[in-house]
Amino acid sequence: MKRRVSLTILIAACAIGASACNPVLRSHGYRYTTQDVPEIIVAEDTESSVLSRLGNPSTRGTFEENTWYYISATRESLAYLRPATRDRRIIAVTFDENGLVSDVAEYGLEDGRVVAIADRETPTRGRELTFLEQLLGNVGRLPTEQFGGEQNLPGGAGGPRRDQ
């Protein structure tokens, strides 16, 4: 009996451990299957027809305001590891000045590039202080005039002193 209970607990622990290793998939953005590639016809479709077929774009071009981007991505998370992008598809629809589609392009994950971000900082004048120097920097620098008989004029320091 005791052996049966311990075997059941062992099997349950293994099942829980194995289920923790299953990847979690998350889909973001405009989704369509490979068979349902949106049919957008150049020089026939307009902004309104694209809106009715695909909905609002994920984003619009920063410098090319006439370009709409429909972005979809699938990310995979496995246990404690950083999520990885498994699939990415981008449909870029460009319109001319009359609102007609002038170009349609599709990009995938293989078209992307890794951009190295520069982590340089702008240097500041002066020297860098350590933590202790910052913490104890004003110890011993208290002005002795404030504790004596002299008083500052109202409105701040730096003005002439009052005679007493």
Protein traits:
164 residues, alpha+beta, five-stranded antiparallel β-sheet, 3 helices, 5 strands
Structure, explained:
The protein is of the alpha+beta class and 164 residues long. It has a domain at 20-110. Helices cover 19% and strands 24% of the residues. It has three helices and five strands; from the N terminus they run αβαββββα. The chain has helices at residues 2-19, 47-54, 131-135; strands at residues 24-29, 59-60, 67-77, 84-95, 101-108. Strand 4 and strand 5 (101-108) form a beta hairpin. The radius of gyration is 33 Å and the shape is flat. The termini are far apart.
Determine the mean pLDDT.
Answer: 79
Strand-and-helix sequence, N→C? HEHEEEEH
What is the rounded distance between the termini? 98 Å
> So how many helices?
3
Looking at how many chains there are and whether they match, the oligomeric state comes to single chain
Low-confidence stretches: none
